[in-house]
Fold:
Amino acid sequence: MARNPVRRVVTGHDDQGRAIILSDGDAPNHFESPAISGFGATVPWFTRKDAIDHVSDEDQATADTDIPPFPGHGETILRVVDFPPDANYPVDGGEALFEEIGGHEEAKAGNKHSDGKHFWFHRTDSLDYAVVLEGEITLLVDDGEATLSPGDVVIQRATSHAWSNRTGKNARMLFVLIGTPPQSASEIAELRRANSAMESA
Structure:
């Protein structure tokens, strides 16, 4: 099942400082899963650490740009993802998924407290802004869940999470991923306890 393309309009400046449209067309950096029907992603833009550039006309997300699955500290990734129904994933859905996107370490970190309740569980060192564009999807965390519709927004703060599509149709989401300094869930919990102790002292 071919994914719908993502139209990408990139702006810039001419030599007089006037704003111009550099390109307008389908975003060239995209991926379709060979193993999971309907799963895929498009990356319209990517910035490396401390490398946001408003001067050159260099395309930051060409078809052959090597973009990591998750951003490193200081990197940003704009990604549009199509999530097929959970029923489309094979029995070993998590293994196949994280093999394709290179996310085994993130899957391991995300499954610490999830009790294996969904194959999509993962955790990254990033602040993610997620917007549902089409369809319905359920966000699962270690303790709780929220079902989301078009226009709903998630602020995902380096937490273990999974995306479950319990419907019969694909869901499309837009993500802005901002790489943050490495900090484990255990370290965050320890800092929270220390802050609570200081506040109650």
The radius of gyration is 18 Å. The longest strand covers residues 126-134. The mean pLDDT is 91. Helices lie at 93-101, 104-110, 185-200.
